[in-house]
Structure prediction request, 228 residues.
Amino acid sequence: QVQLVQSGAEVRKPGASVKVSCKPSGYTFTDYYMHWVRQAPGQGLEWMGWINPKSGGTNYAQKFQGRVTMTSDTSISTAYMELSRLRFDDTAVYYCARWYCSSTSCSEDYWGLGTLVTVSS
Amino acid sequence: DIQMTQSPSSVSASVGDRVTITCRASQFISSWLAWYQQKPGKAPKLLIYAASSLQSGVPSRFSGSGSGTDFTLTISSLQPDDFATYYCQQAHSFPLTFGGGTKVEIK
Prediction:
């Protein structure tokens, strides 16, 4: 069965960086793009971007351009999302999600459990 | 960016009720729409993809309809496990965008 295991909760000060990992199992890592989505406390879902684990190609939401870096290490089948210059409003749960596409649609069909990142002075 | 507008933002319903949630896209997205269910403290779960296709393992009381700009998620007979927040998401173009969510609460 497909599972996405994320790294544990993090606490950072404003201005610092955080790197969250996501290690899937149950499928071939390089066969599917990986998306990152975040959710601030009590708020809705916000898409951040994707990485193609095979090529390393990325596509980031404009809001996060210049602050986010998504990478992958195919040798250990792990995807990473690094967010820099953290602000208080970056406090959120960060999810990785597999991007599955058929001939007629795409969706985020499997999700990690989430990683809470708290930005606090 | 494509804006997704969900309504209502919350609904109170009883077990056995029929519940309908709507989602409107700010531009044409064909059938590139998904619905997710999220329970408190949990990750979202895919319910419906391609506007009307039921994800494997999802109960048949959930159904989706619509195309173009207007979409609907229907729960035919609300069960205790269905009390959650529901989100629509357009998958037509990047950046992907979600609706604001609809919280289904116990009446």
Remarks:
- The radius of gyration of chain B is 13 Å.
- Chain B touches chain A through 26 residues (CB under 8 Å).
- Chain B has a mean pLDDT of 97.
